[in-house]
């Protein structure tokens, strides 16, 4: 992550204002880790689900010239949603490496299964724990 004053081509909208603040969303964590692993400079903005192309965070804004080097899309910036689709696009455009390129077919299936478990099942456990801890922090809710 870069400082707020340094100009960067990519903006990551993750639903929380400020830099250096932990996001509990596994989708934000996944995309932010991918950007860091690839050494892609970015800045963080709060963003809004209303402005998100798929109605959820994270999403990014990236200059079209970076994605389309042939100059066919000079402006405005491209806004993309869905952390998986963003990662796939970055791999296709050569902006980041495919971590699964050297895996066998069986290992790729295991990877898909693990991703499905983490994103489709354990995500909701994470949400439950997050809000349960929040309710304890707030002094508990009287649900009776």
UniProtKB/TrEMBL annotation:
One of its GO terms (cellular component) is cytoplasm. InterPro entries: Mito_Protein_Transport_Metaxin (IPR050931), Thioredoxin-like_fold (IPR012336), Thioredoxin-like_sf (IPR036249). Pfam families: GST_N_4. Residues 26-131 form the Thioredoxin-like fold domain. PANTHER family: FAILED AXON CONNECTIONS-RELATED, METAXIN RELATED. This is Unnamed protein product.
């Amino acid at each position: 992550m870069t400082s707020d004053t340094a100009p960067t081509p990519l903006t990551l909208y993750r639903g929380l204002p400020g830099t250096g603040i932990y996001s509990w969303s596994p989708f934000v964590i996944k995309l932010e880790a991918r950007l860091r692993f690839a050494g892609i400079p970015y800045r963080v903005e709060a963003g809004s689900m209303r402005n998100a192309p798929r109605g959820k965070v994270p999403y990014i804004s990236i200059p079209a010239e970076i994605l389309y080097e042939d100059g066919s899309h000079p402006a405005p910036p491209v806004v993309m949603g869905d952390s998986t689709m963003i990662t796939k696009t970055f791999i296709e455009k050569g902006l980041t490496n495919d971590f699964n390129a050297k895996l066998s077919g069986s290992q790729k299936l295991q990877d898909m299964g693990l991703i499905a478990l983490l994103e489709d099942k354990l995500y909701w456990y994470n949400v439950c724990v997050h809000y349960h801890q929040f309710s304890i922090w707030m002094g508990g809710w009287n649900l009776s």
